[in-house]
Each structure stands twice: as C-alpha cells, then as structure tokens.
Write a structure and sequence with these properties.
The structure is a homodimer of 253-residue chains. By secondary structure, the first copy, chain A, is an alpha/beta fold. Chain A has 2 domains: 67 residues, Hypothetical PUA domain-like, domain 1 (Ribosomal Protein L25, Chain P); 161 residues, Alpha/beta knot, CATH 3.40.1280. Helix content of chain A is 30%, strand content 25%. Chain A has 7 helices and 13 strands. In chain A, the strands form 2 sheets. In chain A, strands 6, 7, 8, 9, 10, 11, 12 and 13 form an 8-stranded parallel sheet that branches. The longest helix of chain A is centred in the last third of the chain and has 16 residues. The radius of gyration of chain A is 20 Å and the shape is elongated.
C-alpha cells in the first residue's frame, strides 16, 4: 500500500486520475508558505464524493497552487447519518465543539436558538472552516454539512418524521443514555442528537418536543455538564453503540 | 427542599453546622467584586469530604470574606474511581480537557510524558484551578486529584495491580470500546483510561503495556481523534457503561 501523505486537503472539484486541481488561495498559502511544500510533493485530496486520492503538487505560486491527481487511496464509503442540533455556545467553546463533533463523525451541525440561548450570533463560515480543518485532520472522507442558526421551533417545524431525536435532558424524566442506546440497536438510521443551552430547555420547548413521536429523553449522569460537554459525550456514546466505531482507522494495522 | 444557591465554592476546611469559614483571597474577590454578593447571601460549600452545605456570607472585605455554615444540602456519596492518564496537550486544549474530564467525573488526572509527547511543561497549579472551577460548576462533591507530569514508564512502575487500564489505541489490534465495556460490566472498580499523544504510543511503550495483565486496548472508531477528543470520548463511554450515569442530577426532577 502507498504511504499516506501527511497533508490532506478538502477540495470542491471532482477527483479522477490525471485531473489537474486548482487549490484555493488559503490552501496555496498553507502548502507553499506554512508547510513549505513544492513541486512533486504528495498531498491527499477528498471532496466528500469521490473517495480519497493521492495527488502531487505541479506548481505553487504566491497565491495559487495546482495539483495533479494520481491514484485512488480509498473509495468513498457510507458514514453514519447523525445530525447534531445544539444551542450554540460562546466563540472558543463553539470552535472546539465543531472540531470535536467533526472528529466524532456528525453528518450535520445545526445551531438552534432556544428560549434560554444567550449567544445569538453564530458565524456559519467560521464553523465551516473549523469543520473542514477537523475533517482533513481526522481523515474523514466528508465534511459535515453546516447550517445557519435558526430558532429551535423552526427547525422542528420541518423535521423529517423518520429521524429519531436523542434529547439530552438534565432535568425531568430521562432514561440513562446507555440503557436507551442498547434498546435502540435495531432502529436503524437516521438520528439526531439535541442539546440545550446552559440552563436547559424551557417548559414550552419540552412540551413541543414531547409531541414528537421520535423524541427520546436521555440522561448523561448526575453532574451538570456544560452544553458542549453534553453534546460531545452524547456523540461519543451514540457512535460507540449505534455508529461506526466497530471499524478501525484505515491503514493503521 | 431548600433552593440551591447559584454559587458553589470548594473550600479546604471542615464543614459542619454553625462553623465560620474563611474564604481564600480569590474567592473573596469572586464573591464580593465579580458576583457582588454581600452579607446574608447564600452560597453552597463542599470540601470533598463532608457533603454539600448551605452557608451564608457573614462579611466581605476587599481581600477576605467569612461565611457561616448553616445546614447540610447533600451527604457525601461514593463516586466512580476512574483515573485519566493522558499524554498532555497544548495549553488551551489542556484547559479544556481538564474542565471536561472533571465534568465527566474523573477522580484523578495524571499527565504522562511519552516518547512522542511534544508538550513537556505542564502546570499542575493551573490544572488544579481548572478542575476546581469545573467541579464547582458541575455540582460535583469532590475535586479530582491532580498529579505532576511524570514519564509514562514511571507511572507504570508503581501501578496498582488491581487497577484495570483501558488503553485507547488508534493503531494495532483493539476491541471496539462498546463491545469491551459490555464484557467488563462485572469487573468492578478501580479503572484508568490511558490516552497517548498525537502520533500515538511508540512500539516500546506498547510492548511495556502489553506485559500488564489488566491492560485492554480499545478502539474509538475509524477517524483519527485528537488526543483530547479521545480522552473525552472514552470517559463518556466508560461512565455511561460502568460509571454512575444511571443517576440523575440532584434536585432536577
């Protein structure tokens, strides 16, 4: 097997053997000035559709770089269909949450404005940049879809009826997450994890959620977790039980 | 039931009804200048031994504050005995890891210098301050024990023979964490989670670990997780399966 290049880039364009691929200006800067790579150096490319490809740098300029696509390293493979719907948190914890959630394999990040949400300004572009960087680093073949922040009620209005919701609830009735996930093993996808703001959901929101057929309230133990901790903990438990954690990282054995 | 005060402080001194408790200078500043609390205002106190107590402020000065302990809110209760032995990460991720690991209920934080560890300077005092703040916020009754960074080999030298090690391994043979934890349900405590640096453990370290009877290598899925993500994911899975996550936060029903 070919050695994997240390550098992995997400690009928008199609990928196939022999193709020339133009990098973005930021990627050209990263390759040429940060990593100091030049013509002939190998780079792995993925676009979320065509798998992962070995490529090499054809030329680097000050603001541009061109790569030639060589051979396929990995075929595109199905990934868990898991949305994270979360009340947004402050800037640094949000960067962290997006990075970690991407590593933990979410397929979509959907910030939800709830009644008790304090942070209302969420920069989608910044979330996308963090998601791309984390996807490159963790060797995913996709980048999670990032949505603009919307009111929770609006998100629920258009909710697909077949998508289960794992509601992380620090107050009220809830089944321990492990117990719930064991019982859910036959249910199949798709799923979403829903986490609230500091202080939790308010009663009208809980009433609205309780009307949904596919909502299950789960507990994450006796300590009060921060909003971002709760999201990461639930994602890890879900992946371990219902996701793809029976698999190993590629090429590490 | 008495309303819980919003403010919780960890203090060193004993706690019993009627006692006067002197705050640290930082705590006095926090109570008086940040929260702008004054005489009569309620505060919850815990010391890791005597449970949680309702107290009220007797007086606040510029650099000092005295509290009077009133009544017991919660008895001290046993908590999971789970160490986190981890190759330290950079400053901001380390702050984050200590905070999250405290919320996720670790009993001890032990930084381990491995062959591929890049960050060698770890400030124990800073870790302790972060652990205390997180414990106050998440309503724990204890603060995790924080150790100085030591070489992994030295930590393993004095390893207690009855303590199981969950080794998070991104390369080599490993059982999916969920499958392993299901099989481990009868084993009882104590446990430790061991996570490596970026790039993983080297072969001599893995050979050393493989000689231990109680080490089990587990996998956290097909994506390459950052060191801090791996630690948090393993802690969450352990707590959900073997820890105290069948319990709910106190006073939230």
């Amino acid at each position: 097997m070919t050695d994997r290049p240390r550098t992995r880039l997400f690009i928008e364009s199609d990928l196939a053997s022999g193709m020339a691929v133009e990098c973005s200006r930021d990627q050209a800067h990263y390759l040429g000035n940060v990593l100091r790579l030049g013509p002939g150096d190998p780079v792995a490319l993925f676009n979320g559709r065509d798998g992962e490809w070995l490529a090499h740098i054809r030329e680097t300029g000050k603001k541009s770089a061109t790569l030639t696509v060589d051979s396929c390293l990995r075929d595109q493979a199905p990934e868990p269909d898991l949305w994270l719907v979360f009340a947004p948190v402050k800037k640094a914890p949000l960067d962290f949450l997006v990075q970690k959630a991407t590593e933990l394999g979410v397929s979509a990040l959907m910030p939800a404005i709830t009644r008790r949400t304090v942070v209302e300004r969420v920069k989608r572009e910044r979330m996308e940049a963090n998601a791309i960087e984390a996807a490159e680093q963790c060797e995913r073949l996709t980048v999670p879809h990032v949505e603009d922040a919307r009111p929770l009620s609006r998100i629920l209005d258009g909710w697909p009826t077949d998508r289960h919701i794992l509601l992380c609830a620090e107050a009220g009735e809830a089944v321990p997450i492990n117990e719930f996930l064991r019982g859910a093993e036959g249910r199949g996808e798709p799923w979403a994890i829903l986490t609230g703001p500091e202080g939790g959901f308010d009663q009208t929101e809980l009433d609205l959620l309780n009307k949904f057929p596919n909502v299950s309230a789960v507990g994450l133990g006796p300590r009060i977790l921060r909003a971002d901790t709760a999201a990461l903990a639930a994602l890890a438990c879900w992946q371990a039980a219902l996701g793809d954690w029976q698999n190993r990282p590629p090429g590490r054995n």
